[in-house]
């Protein structure tokens, strides 16, 4: 009886581990879909971060140009990838590290602001981030209803220094989010196709 229980437990653990590894898409698919967030001219040589079969965040492909792409997180619902200028990589990596420590948004914001102001964390004076989303066709694995929104980081920019509104605007209109802070950024959210 004891051996049967152990056997069932081992089988169950094996099935669970197989099930998890099947949830992580192939390296090739992650790269193919991650680079969709980058402008076309930067897709081929972009550095790509994604997930290995164990679900660990890893480099899937080394880069040769100015862009870094993030594959969709298989643990999160929906499909979303991102691409940003490599000058933002230290800032983004710090945010991921703090999140992995269990920190929440406000605490991450405050810690990084303190580090940027002290010079411990480098933040570029301007840099681009693109976020790509859509729906994965479960049969073809192609991305349907693609949509890209744009973020232009300009640390400590204000409405006065940019001439931009600091409250959300209708789709297609630029506005400045987090004005006056280290992560001030221009948001451009194009209208979605109906």
Task: Give an overview of the whole structure.
This protein has 194 residues and is an alpha+beta fold. It has a domain of 128 residues. The protein contains six helices and eight strands, in the order αααββββααββαββ. An eight-stranded mixed β-sheet has the order 2-1-3-4-5-6-8-7, with helices on one face.
> By helix and strand content, what is the structural category?
alpha+beta
Please provide the ordered H/E string of secondary-structure elements. Answer: HHHEEEEHHEEHEE
The separation of the N and C termini measures 61 Å
Show unreliable segments: 4-22
Average pLDDT value? Answer: 89
Q: What gross morphology would you assign?
A: globular
Give the total of beta strands: 8
Approximately how much helix is present in the residues?
Answer: 25-40%
Count of DSSP helices?
A: 6
Q: What's the arrangement of strands in the largest beta sheet?
A: 2-1-3-4-5-6-8-7
Q: Report the sheet-strand fraction.
A: 25-35%
Radius of gyration: 20 Å
Largest sheet: 8 strands, mixed
